[in-house]
């Protein structure tokens, strides 16, 4: 099992900024430790790099409770579906699609393992990676209503962007090797 440090070392020199940013976003945030690691895990799952995902999951399991991990997995899975569906509806711009019922189960969003705010935050991070404007706006609105600050929401987006960039950088390293 790779550690986060070994993952950082595997990032090629051309992406040194990502290596430095990965360490920074996991240690310097306005988010709680649980929120930081939940965002990181959900983002790593969404970024689809098994080494990065597994190393972040291992570290997270040592630092946070299982409900945080469960909500991170839930966010990644449900947003994998919702981000595609709602991005499709948004991008077509046709009212006819928006008036059709999704008929997609997403009951778990209403029943988080940790808290509604955590699940929304993890979902926002995955939605940012997946590029779904409608979902980002909906989760940001809900998080503001849950009492999170713009700084906290911003930090979740920063973590998501760096975790995704780390996945890309690791792939670049594999290509260059």
Radius of gyration: 16 Å
What value does the average pLDDT take?
95
Class derived from helix and strand content = mainly alpha
Oligomerization status of the protein chains: single chain
Total DSSP E strands: 0
- Reading the helices and strands in chain order gives HHHHHHHHH
Helix content, binned percent: over 70%
CATH topology: AhpD-like
By CATH, the architecture is named Up-down Bundle
**CATH class term:** Mainly Alpha
List low-confidence stretches.
Answer: none
Q: What's the name of the CATH homologous superfamily? A: AhpD-like
Largest sheet: none
Number of domains: 1
In summary, what is this structure?
With 177 residues, this protein is mainly alpha-helical. The protein has helices at residues 4-10, 16-27, 33-47, 50-63, 66-92, 95-99, 116-130, 133-145, 150-176.
Summarize the structure in words.
This protein has helices spanning 4-10, 16-27, 33-47, 50-63, 66-92, 95-99, 116-130, 133-145, 150-176. The chain is built from nine helices and no strands. The protein has 177 residues and is mainly α. The chain has a single domain (4-176), classed as AhpD-like (Up-down Bundle). The radius of gyration is 16 Å and the shape is globular. The chain is 76% helix and 0% strand. The mean pLDDT is 95. The longest helix is centred in the middle third of the chain and has 27 residues, at 66-92.
């Amino acid at each position: 099992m790779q550690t986060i440090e070994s993952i950082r070392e595997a990032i090629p020199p051309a992406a040194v900024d990502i290596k430095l940013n990965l360490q920074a976003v996991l240690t310097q945030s306005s988010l709680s430790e649980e929120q930081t690691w939940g965002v990181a895990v959900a983002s790593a799952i969404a970024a689809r790099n098994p080494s990065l995902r597994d190393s972040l999951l291992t570290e997270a399991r040592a630092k946070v409770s299982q409900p945080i991990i469960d909500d991170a997995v839930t966010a990644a899975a449900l947003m994998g579906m919702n981000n595609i569906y709602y991005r499709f509806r948004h991008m077509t711009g046709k009212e006819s699609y928006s008036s059709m019922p999704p008929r997609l189960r997403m009951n778990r969003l209403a029943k988080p393992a940790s808290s509604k705010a955590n699940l929304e935050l993890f979902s926002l991070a995955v939605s940012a990676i997946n590029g779904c404007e409608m979902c980002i706006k909906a989760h940001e609105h809900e998080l503001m209503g849950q009492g999170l600050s713009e700084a906290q929401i911003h930090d979740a987006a920063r973590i998501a962007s760096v975790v995704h960039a780390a996945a890309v950088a690791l792939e670049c390293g594999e290509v260059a090797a």
